[in-house]
Amino acid sequence: MAGPGKRIKTVTSELNKVCPDEGDGYSVYPKSYYDLDVVPNLRRSNSTFSKSKRRTHFTLSTNEKENLSSWIPENFRKKECVYYIESSQMSDSGKTVCECGYLREQHSEEAVKPAMFQGKEWDPRRHVQEVPTDAFGDLCFTGLGQKLAKFVRVSSDTPPRVIYQLMTQHWGLDIPNLLISVTGGAKNFNMKPRLKNIFRRGLVKVAQTTGAWIISGGSHAGVMKQVGEAVRGFSLTSSYKEGEIVTIGIATWGTVHNRNSLICPMGSFPAEYVLDEESQGNLSCLDSNHSHFILVDDGTHGKYGVEILLRTKLEKFISEQTKVKEGVAIKIPIVCVVLEGGPGTLDTIYNAITNGTPCVIVEGSGRVADVIAQVANLPISKINIKLIQKELRTFFKDSYEQFTENKIVEWTKKIQDIVRHRPLLTIFREGKDGQQDVDVAVLQAMLKASRYRDNFGRENWDHQLRLAVAWNRVDIARSEIFTDNHEWKPCDLHPMMAAALIANKPEFVKLFLEQGVRLKEFVTWDTLNYLYENLVASSVFYGKLQKVLLEEKEHSAFSRVPRVQLHHVSQVLRELLGDFTQLLYPKPKNTDRHRLSIAVPHIKLNVQGVNLRSLYKRSAGRVTFTMDPVRDLLIWAVVQNRKELAEIIWAQSQDCIAAALACSKILKELSKEEDDTDSTEEMLTLAEEYEHRAIGVFTECHRKDEERAQKLLIRISDAWGKTTCLQLALEAKNMNFVSHGAVQAFLTKVWWGKMSVDNGICQVILCMLFFPLLYTGLITFRENRLQPMSCLTRFRAFFTAPMVIFHLNILSYFSFLCLFAYVLMVDFQPVPSWLEYVIYFWLFSLVCEETRQLFYDPDGFGFLKMVSLYLNDFWNKLDLCAILIFTAGLTCRWITATFYPGRIILSLAFIIFCLRLMHIFTVSKTLGPKIIIVKRMMKDVFFFLFLLAVWVVSFGVAKQAILIHNENRVDWIFRGVVYHSYLTIFGQIPSYIDGVNFNLDQCSPNGTDPYKPKCPENNEANQQPVFPEWLTVILLCLYLLFTNILLLNLLIAMFNYTFQQVQEHTDQIWKFQRHDLIEEYHGRPPAPPPFILFNHLQLFVKRVLLRKPAMRRKQLKEKLEKNEEASLLSWEMYLKENYLQHQQCQQKQNTEQMIQDIANRMDVVAEQLDLAQVKRTGLVEQRLAHLEEQMFQSTKALQWIVNSLSSSGFGLEDDAPIMVPSRAPKMEDHEEEVSETFQVLYHVRARNLLYPSSTAVRFPVPDEKVPWEVEFDIYNPLFYSEERKETDPPESSRDTLENLSKINFNSMDGEINRQSFHGTYIVQDGLPLNPMGRTGLRGQGILRFFGPNHDLHPVVTRWRRNLDGSIARKSLKKMLEILVVKFPLSDHWALPGGSLEPGEALPQKLKWILRREFWPQFQKLLNQGTEVYKGYMDDPRNTDNAWIETSAINVHFEDQNDVEMKRLNSFLQGCDLEVAVRWQVVDKRIPLYTNHKEILKKASDLLGAYY
Fold first, then answer.
1. pTM
2. Cα 864 to Cα 93: distance, rounded to the nearest angstrom
3. What is the pLDDT of residues 220-258, one digit of tens each?
4. Longest CA–CA separation in the chain, Å
5. Are 120 and 85 in contact (CB under 8 A)?
6. CA atoms of 1210 and 116, how far apart (whole Å)
7. Are 361 and 338 in contact (CB under 8 A)?
């Protein structure tokens, strides 16, 4: 035999037993929450998916199945009966059953014939044993799809901690943000269709949006079925798995129909379960829409309610867990949702309210829910036995006869206690009180309960805000939290702002910005570090950042990967933005920089506790803010591809054009390394969107002021690495932006230099050829001030214009090519002529110019970077190739032996120099795009040649092998295989391939003639070819078919596609590539080669000899003064707001958006019409009820008149008409009404049903039955007196029943004061009676004495002071501070004091916190203090015969320099280390015991202070 806590090993045969028959059952409901069990040595599993992403329905691998098959039986038990006692009940099949409900054959042989006598009465504590569970795994509902659920059979004594570990670690469930416990009717009931739809929609919405778990009974009936159907409706409309709802069914194993199919000792993966409601009888089927099942077993069959105790403990355990996510830690909140229900539901509601769990009652669902809803808004004094009796008769029509008088009294007491906690009770009324959705009601209930809890300072509001952020319900935050009831400081929102950013909740970020959060104050270096430490691990940027950290670890002496710092981030950002930018976050020189003392990295915010750590602890002089916080947050959001967040932050930016272009560049670079195709497309789409934003804002700027808009293009932005908007757009290849009319106008302006753009090209060329024409007015200049200037200034302005420099270089280059061609073809002598020397000199000037371009570094990039940038340009590569080939040819030309090869090499160089002409033509709008087409077609040809080579080589080798025998000349092999095969494509077919035109004179028979190919295979006798002509012809035809028709047409199609693709964007491409040419000639020396050498000589003198730095190109990059830059950015930000408003207007005018808005409005109108109908119906009902009440009152009045007239002799009494009341019959009233004035004296906490520190349960005493004067015939309370403990000290005095007759009540009994502050109390049957009335429990309880137990509570106060020493005020009243204490093992703070020992002047608890030498002095302070209260204490420990009375004395220190107060503070420092003592600001939300808060309220009133 095994006790309840022991584990017994069983053999496999015992595990395989099943239960084929089921019997009847009955309901059992719990009355209290039990203490949580603790698992001291819980065996942990090495599950491979313990902390994985939520996987509600996933397939287990073989190893995972084996892991579960061993771990679950080790940690979970089932219960089975080990002693068969025949019961008087019968099974459905008519067989006798055991007291446990199972048949005889379902017991083991040991149970039927026990080895030892165990008694005649069946006792579950002795006759039920625990054995390893035999039912767990996956559950598949036959015929209802492939959806799998998880299930496990557990003992009713299983610790909640083990079940929680199973759900989170082995079932892979994410820790919930909210726990929704749905309870109510276990049988099917009828709900209004509209209410049913509202409940289902709201339940699913709150679960989906908050990431909640829904817990229900799990059966396919009643409220559980409603929950299942709600989840099923959501799953049918949901298209993504992330939204799957966790629905946990906790049911009784012994009441599950068809449970035999779930039994498998090694686990079922899956178990086939048949949902058969027709044959279930008194049992219940599992609901197929639940995702997880916990089947609670107590060893019985057919007994309902077994699971409620374990469910209650599990829910409480889960609600005490802390979830840490995205930097915010909250204790998991729990809410109870009630539909319909019976007595068990009332117990559930009572237990929930008692434990501080908020409840949402759905009115209109029936029975218990409607009874509570009807009385919820009434004063407690009006909720009496008579009213509850009436409501029960109304809503329990079929079962009202089952309610005994005791039961009605119990219901009245419980409903009074439930309604007394109004902040924890929310009634959902359809269409009333502005409520339309259940989800809003549920979340409002949580926040209302949060406001009800006592907290220090603003912790209560912080708690509510954390809940709203965790739930991601910004609508609740707007309507319930950010109200006029609390004033939020922007700094108070910083922790939640960080949490919202990390959790990617853009709506909350927007809300916090609306509430006054300033990014300049929020974003610090440490905040930014924390944000980058919490990057999404799956992002590309995170991977690149980890590579940088690994590289630093390899190049340093670190033993582990260093933490993320901003200079690491800066390295990755420079790689994304381009090397032309400077580091955004330079590495600090002083590594020991003062860090901000904030608790951001690992905030532990205990939302249920009283010690809330602030996220930001700012101290003066230690906060390091970033240069541009908006930029920093924008980059952080963009690199994670968070579109909505980035959009909100970009709207806050000043330098918005540069920011948008930088974001476009970053996204395009990240998309190149993204593996996921969908993410790549999203990044590219977002990059394009940012480009359009930049265009939109720039367009607004250009419309307002063209000159200022052009300044925005070339302004050096310090925030973005000292680059410009134009440079960012070019690097990101934002063709749409660069091709914008305003950008092109600026480039044209740069192209013409200081000349007016209205000048004709012919006029410019004429002035180039004959410069004196400049002084004739033929050329106009853009600035009028240049007109009257000197000739030299006009000459310089003309010849330094990029357009003039370009045309001079064209003229020079054509001259060079002509001279070069002439020398190669006409004047290339062994001894160079003077013309050839001119060419060498000319080329030298070109080499010098290329060298200048290579070393020209005004931005300080460094030589290696300049080499990289130089070689990245295709035309520079072509120039370098031409120069190297020319140099090689020149070297060979000077050597006599290689004179001719030198000329050949120089000829090749000439070809490349000619190809360089294409770059010059890129300035042409017609030829420029065509050059781009040619470049792209060259790529197409490269891939085409690979395909062509396969056919050429395959055909050539086959042809050569068939026709020629052992050709050993390599050159002729190449000709036969490649060259001839290639020419065949173009129609030059070999004559000998078909044998018709075979001629021996055209070939060499033995291959000895070097100028002839070897002859094909032939007959030596008749000299005729012997190779298979039919085969060679077929091969030739196939070859021509595939090469000429297929491959060449494929090449044409590729060319056509490339042409069309480029042709569609011809204008953009030309405008984009035009910039490169303009930039090149804008920075080029004005003189053309070879005269450019004079400019190079000038640069050499300046840079090398005089050491002058390189001058920046003023027109393409400009550094503005601070004031001018600030004004320009403010102007840009103003126009950005105009652009955003314009975008919103366009979006509203969009046809699709208008249709959507109209549809939404129609839905709202339809909803309002439905609600109006409901309200109208309710209004009619109210009017009818009011009319009925008036008729009833009128009838009573008429009856009184008739009786009065009859009694006065006006007519006979028999002739008086009978007045029939017009409402429900009056119920019997055996009780007298109790005056409202007396009811305020009722003790409430002294009548709590659960007596503290014991298992005793009080007799329910409604308010009206509290006074002893009121008759209460059924009053029969339990007698309870705690026995003396062995740990109690022997000197501690305590009353006992044995010495009860020796006690002298209402007097001083030795040193024990048994006198009451309320005068003489009644002693009945030797026991004193509580002067405040009945409590529901007789005896001494856990108090020490019968009768009054005296306490002393000092109320030590002082004024709260401001920094300047003045008294702080609130609502024009002075603010108090009070001395409070917290003792070990207590969750509440309390006033210093407690029970008085006989003969002692100070309480023992007060002595704990004071040094002994201060006790006499404190006694004097008490004697000088003011008595605040003396009398009865409404305490849960009170009984009918023992109660607590206290004396509260206020010791107030008026002066902050009071000597006694300073002495008190000094003596407090030496108190017990386990006791916490503090001065706390007095507020109605201060977390003290309720009794102590009432005393504190009296003290505040006495001093006229704020409370």
1. 0.68
2. 94
3. 888 888 888 888 877 766 654 445 789 999 999 988 988
4. 166
5. yes
6. 88
7. yes
